[in-house]
Design goal:
There is one protein chain. The protein is mostly helical. A two-stranded antiparallel ribbon has the order 1-2. The protein is rod-shaped. The chain has 26 helices and two strands. The chain has helices at about 5-30, 35-40, 45-150, 155-170, 175-240, 270-280, 285-305, 310-335, 345-365, 370-390, 395-405, 405-425, 440-445, 470-485, 495-520, 525-555, 570-595, 600, 615-635, 640-660, 670-695, 695-700, 710-720, 730-735, 740-750, 765-785, and strands spanning about 435, 460.
């Protein structure tokens, strides 16, 4: 082999080696990119291409070798495939034949199948239609049922039906038109129900408002019955205490029987409950609560407007009963309404009513002119208070109004009693009251505890007082009763001191002042003044009864007012008025005595002979005094009789002394002195007899009636004395002439002129005595003149 061939062979071997490397890398899946990059970098890509071609050829050779290895099996497979193709053609022809036959048979069945499927579809649609129709029928039935309930005003079942529709049927209504109609109608139906229910509530409000007056009157009537039973029990206890009888408390062992509730108190709140429940179902419960509260508040304000067309005293019962009924209803609504009202709302309504009632009462009380009317209104207001207190309402302000009007009431009451007292005094006969039977004695004497003895007198009984006394006592007793009635059931519990204050004020400012006005009027006679003095003495004694009676009515133990320090001030003032009546009586008696004893005119001061039987006037004076003392002994206390007697006799003594001192009497003689001495003796005898026969002698041992005329007696004794100059003897004067005044004696003695001597007067012994007496008198005159 030449070198060129060998080199090519070496090259080829070398290349073949590289090709194998490359083929191995390709077979292994290695990355040949570095070789490709290196070949192009080296500038010898041809070699790389050649290597790649070598790899391709090698792979082709492998493929050919593999194909050769499996060719026979392929031929066999092809032959089998051809056999299968022939079988397939035969099978195809058979299949086409069978298909043709099947198509012929199946076309009929296909038609039947289509008919069956259509039937199934119709059946499904019918079933759904029936179901939808049933649903619609059920919905329509509920709608009809709802309409029936509404037409029959059965709103709650109607709402339940609507609620059932909304919850269970509305989502399943297949008919959209029906669904839209129902959805549109439900709000209007609810609104209609709400309006109808509100209309029913309004009708109920009108009806319950008209019933409130009857409800209030019934409740107040019950309170009045309870109060009457309590008062009857207290009266029974009071009478038992008066009789000192121990009685068992009826309430302690009484069977409590509940009274059957009056039909008026069984007012029906069902419409209100129903409306409240329906509004709850509608979801507007709070709105209805506010609606009810506002409308009832408007009704309350309307009820609180008092009509001016009718006098208050004629309309107050209806007005107050309406308010009581209103709040009784609201109390029941509060307790049973399930939150329809809250306590604050009821409290607001009560405060509104209370403010207007108290304001109205203040105005009406200020306008009232009658204590009776004021008492009637007060009693009804306290019944209102006691009724509403049972339901928990605060009535303190109401009682305060009544308490503030207490002075006004007692002022009106005092004026009415003053008028009655004036009528009693004006119509009084001022004659001793003649009581003909024991019932009259009990009514006019014992009932006022003004009897002078516990022994029942014989009838007819001549009382020491006139008919004015029991009549005045009845007026005072009625004043006490009216005062207690007003103060009872008020803000004060222990009100005896208040009653006592008003009683004392009434006795002082009305009874006592009226008596004083009568005493000082100057239009009464001696007999009237004496009877008035006797009446005042009895009234003074009756003050203790008035105080006890007030205590009994106030349920105060009588023993607490029987203490000396508990006496009324009026009793002291009545005693003063009694003394004033004695002064008036004495003034009238003295005036009458002045009429009888014009001694300056009726006595012959220079008589030639004395009158042994006294002057004519003294008989009239004694007769008058006898009548005066007899009457005084019958109707006046002994101390009053003594005052009248001593006053009259002192005045007679002053008249006698005054006659001697009168400027009209220029002179008098011994005969005139002797005549007056005889008059004085007759008067002294009469007064001594009257003094001891009346029992005054046992009381006034040191001051008899006779001693009241001591000045006149000592003056007459002095003028009749044979030695008048002894008057200047201190011892004799202190013993016999202590009542005489120097100046008066001097003035009188100057007028004393003894009578002139008669024929043959100088021959008698008497003349000697007269001369001695005259000398003594002249000596007295001289000494008195010197003394002065």
């Amino acid at each position: 082999m030449d070198v060129k061939t060998k080199r090519r062979a070496d090259v080829e071997n070398g290349d073949e080696g590289e090709d194998l490397v490359l083929a191995t890398m390709v077979a292994n899946g290695d990355d040949i990119s570095p070789l490709v990059r290196h070949a192009f970098e080296m500038g010898r890509p041809e070699g790389l291409l050649r290597q790649l071609n070598f790899v391709v050829r090698k792979k082709e050779a492998e493929i050919e070798e593999m194909c050769k290895t499996h060719y026979e099996e392929f031929i066999l497979a092809v032959d089998e495939l051809r056999g299968v193709l022939v079988d397939a053609e035969e099978l195809k022809s058979e299949l086409q034949s069978d298909n043709f036959k099947l198509q012929q048979v199946g076309s009929i069945l296909l038609v039947k199948l289509e008919e069956l499927l259509e039937s199934y579809t119709v059946k499904k649609n019918v079933t759904e239609a029936i179901k939808m129709s049933k649903n619609c029928m059920k919905v329509l039935e509920l709608c009809v049922k709802c309409n029936d309930h509404i037409s029959e005003s059965e709103f709650f079942p109607a709402l339940k039906t609507i609620d059932l529709l909304e919850k269970n049927y509305m989502q399943n209504i297949p008919a959209k038109a029906l669904k839209r109609v129902i959805e549109k109608k439900i709000p209007s139906i609810k609104s209609h129900i709400e309006k109808k229910v509100c209309s029913q509530v309004n009708e109920w409000m009108v009806q319950i408002r008209s019933s409130c007056k009857i409800i209030g009157q019934t409740a107040i009537g019950r309170s009045a019955s309870v109060r009457q039973r309590d008062e009857e029990l207290m009266e029974k206890k009071r009478k038992s205490e008066e009789l000192n009888i121990s009685v068992v408390d009826d309430q302690a062992y009484s069977l409590v029987v509940e009274e059957e509730e009056d039909s008026a108190m069984k007012f029906d709140l069902t419409p209100l409950y129903r409306a409240c429940h329906i509004h709850s179902c509608l979801g507007v419960r709070e709105q209805f609560h506010e609606y009810y509260y506002k409308n009832r508040l408007l009704q309350l304000n309307s009820d609180l407007e008092i009509s001016s067309a009718q006098p208050f005293v004629e309309s107050y019962q209806t007005f107050l009963a309406q308010i009581v009924g209103y709040f009784i209803v609201e109390d029941k609504v509060l307790r049973t309404g399930g939150g329809l009202l809250v306590p604050d709302q009821v409290e607001t309504m009560w405060e509104t009513a209370l403010a207007k009632i108290t304001s109205m009462l203040d105005v009406q009380f200020s306008l009232m002119k009658s204590a009776t009317h004021l008492l009637l209104v007060k009693d009804y207001v306290t019944l209102l208070g006691s009724t509403l207190r049972q339901y928990g309402y605060d009535i303190g302000q109401l009682l305060d109004v009544l308490d503030n009007s207490c002075d006004k009431y007692h002022r009106l009451l005092s004026e009415e009693c003053r008028s009655q007292t004036l009528d009693v005094l004006g119509n009084d006969s001022y004659e001793q009251m003649v009581i003909k039977k024991d019932t009259d004695y009990e009514n006019n004497v014992l009932s006022f505890n003004i009897q002078t003895s516990d022994i029942m007198p014989a009838f007819p009984y001549v009382a020491p007082f006139s008919s004015m006394v029991p009549d005045a006592c009845r007026i005072v007793r009625s004043f006490i009763k009216s005062s207690v009635d007003y103060l009872s059931y008020g803000v004060r519990t222990g009100f005896f001191d208040v009653v006592r204050k008003y009683l004392d004020k009434f006795l002082i400012e009305v009874l006592n002042e009226t008596l004083l006005d009568t005493i000082n009027s100057g239009n009464i006679s001696v007999s009237q003044a004496m009877q008035l003095a006797a009446n005042i003495a009895v009234l003074e004694r009756a003050c203790d009864y008035f105080l006890r009676h007030a205590a009994q009515l106030c349920c105060i133990p009588v023993r607490t007012v029987e203490k000396p320090q508990a006496t009324l001030t009026a009793k002291v003032l009545l005693k003063t008025s009694r003394d004033a009546s004695y002064i008036t009586l004495l003034s009238l008696v003295n005036t009458k005595l002045d009429e009888y004893m014009h001694l300056v005119e009726i006595i012959n001061w220079t008589s030639e002979e004395p009158k042994p039987n006294g002057n004519d006037y003294i008989n009239e004076v004694i007769f008058y005094l006898d009548s005066l003392m007899s009457t005084a002994q019958q109707i006046l206390p002994l101390d009053a009789m003594y005052k009248v007697g001593t006053g009259a006799l002192e005045h007679i003594s002053n008249i006698i002394v005054g006659a001697f001192l009168s400027d009209i009497v220029k002179r008098f003689n011994a005969n005139a002195v002797m005549s007056i001495n005889n008059d004085l003796k007759m008067l002294e005898d009469f007064t001594d007899e009257r003094f001891y026969s009346s029992g005054l002698g046992e009381i006034y041992r040191e001051g008899s009636f006779k001693s009241c005329m001591i000045e006149a007696r000592q003056l007459i004794n002095l003028l009749s004395s044979s030695q008048p100059e002894n008057f200047m003897n201190p011892v004799i004067r202190e013993k016999n002439y202590y009542a005489l005044d120097y100046k008066k004696v001097a003035s009188i003695c100057d007028k004393f002129k003894d009578s002139a001597d008669g024929i043959f007067g100088s021959l008698s012994n008497k003349n000697t005595k007269q001369t001695a007496k005259k000398k003594s008198m002249e000596m007295l005159k001289k000494r008195l003149k010197d003394f002065n």
